[in-house]
Amino acid sequence: MRLYNISMNIKHLLKDKSINPTKQRLEIAELIFVKDQHFTAAQLIEQVRDKKLPISQATVYNTLCLFESTGLLKTIDLENDCKFYDTNLYSHHHIYNTSTNVLTDISTDKIEFSKMPDIPAHLELEQTEVLIKVKNK
Ligand SMILES: [Zn+2]
């Protein structure tokens, strides 16, 4: 989400999506959109706690849900109910280290598809994203 620079722009960003920019939502958005990043709800809750922001866990979850449903955040679902939020809304691939629980971007030009399954005629390809899982040796 490089298009948006913090604070003033975040307010516009939320208003743009018809989200009422409450103080808590703005504070959460500032933590999220300060840079391109992947994070889990638990990590965000930790950041909120570290910054001593008076925001409940429920509010963090609700805000993440709201941002996801309005298209401000993309999600990547991994096994064990581990869900990552991604501020990079452009199509891209990921490499996931299951040992460290770290998700990293791979740009689309790093992967090429030589073979694809047939897609039923009434459907069209929307997006092809790859998740590569690695673990520490
Ligand atoms: Zn990503």
Please describe what this structure looks like.
This protein is α+β, with helices and mostly antiparallel strands and 137 residues long. It has one domain (1-108, 120-137): Arc Repressor Mutant, subunit A (Orthogonal Bundle). 31% of the residues lie in helices and 19% in strands. The protein has helices at residues 8-16, 23-32, 41-50, 57-69, and strands at 38-39, 74-78, 82-86, 93-97, 102-106, 131-134. A three-stranded antiparallel β-sheet has the order 1-3-2. The protein has a three-stranded mixed β-sheet with strand order 5-4-6, with no helix packed on it. Strand 4 (93-97) and strand 5 (102-106) form a beta hairpin. The chain is globular, with a radius of gyration of 17 Å. The model has no long low-confidence stretch (mean pLDDT 91). The structure holds zinc ion. Zinc ion binds next to loops.
List strands and helices in order, with pairings.
Blueprint: H1 8-16, H2 23-32, E1 38-39, H3 41-50, H4 57-69, E2 74-78, E3 82-86, E4 93-97, E5 102-106, E6 131-134
Parallel strand pairs: 4-6
Antiparallel strand pairs: 1-3, 2-3, 4-5
Zinc ion (ZN) binds next to loops.
- Proper CATH architecture: Orthogonal Bundle
Strand order of the largest sheet: 1-3-2
What is the third-level CATH name, the topology?
Arc Repressor Mutant, subunit A
| Inertia-based shape | globular
Give the termini distance in whole angstroms. 34 Å
> Major sheet, described briefly?
3 strands, antiparallel
CATH superfamily: Winged helix-like DNA-binding domain superfamily/Winged helix DNA-binding domain
Question: How would you name the oligomeric state of the polypeptide chains in this document?
Answer: single chain
Instruction: Name the helicity range.
Output: 25-40%
Q: Could you tell me the strand content as a percent range?
A: 15-25%
SSE arrangement, N to C: HHEHHEEEEE
Count of discrete domains: 1
- The low-confidence runs, each spanning 5 or more residues with pLDDT under 50, are none
Query: How confident overall, as mean pLDDT?
Result: 91
Bound molecule kinds, no repeats: zinc ion
Q: What is the alpha-carbon Rg in Å?
A: 17 Å
Structure summary, number of beta strands: 6
| CATH class designation | Mainly Alpha
Structural class: alpha+beta
Helical region count?
4
